[in-house]
Design goal:
mainly beta; 4-stranded mixed β-sheet; 2 helices
Length: 135
């Protein structure tokens, strides 16, 4: 039987004052490199999801966030890997979005989300945000 590595990832749906949603592009040398994603990252051992999301957004984008609310979750599975994704809505409480890891970032109108190449596990959330499925 093949051993499966399980990881938990937290990601944020952050909107600007115009309702656009923040996306970041994964570095090409990482798993699913080049795809756009909702910003966030892996939870460390013993870390609460909200704590991990605050840490990741500070490290990667230089922002502090608050008003975290769970939206949904998704599971992505491939050979030897299972990823549980926890999606939260969040608001920037301080800082300015800065791509600290050299990644591209973009503010995208919700109805334009389907035009961006994103990980398969994000599909249901994209449909929800773009108004293509009921909440």
């Amino acid at each position: 039987m093949t051993e499966v590595q399980s990881i938990t990832v937290v990601a944020a749906v952050i909107r600007d004052d115009h309702g656009n949603i923040l996306l970041a592009r994964r570095p090409k040398d990482r798993h699913m490199g080049g795809l756009w994603e909702f910003p966030g990252g892996k939870m460390d051992a013993g870390e609460a999801p909200e704590e991990a999301l605050r840490r990741e957004l500070s490290e990667e984008l230089g922002v502090s966030v608050g008003h975290l609310r769970p939206i949904t979750f998704a599971v992505h599975q491939e050979s030897g890997l299972r990823i549980l994704l926890l999606f939260y809505s969040a608001e920037i409480t301080s800082g300015t979005v800065t791509a600290r890891e050299g990644q591209d970032v973009a503010w995208v109108a919700p109805d334009r989300l389907p035009a961006f190449e994103m990980p398969p596990a994000d599909a249901d959330l994209i449909d929800l945000l773009a108004g293509h499925s009921p909440p």
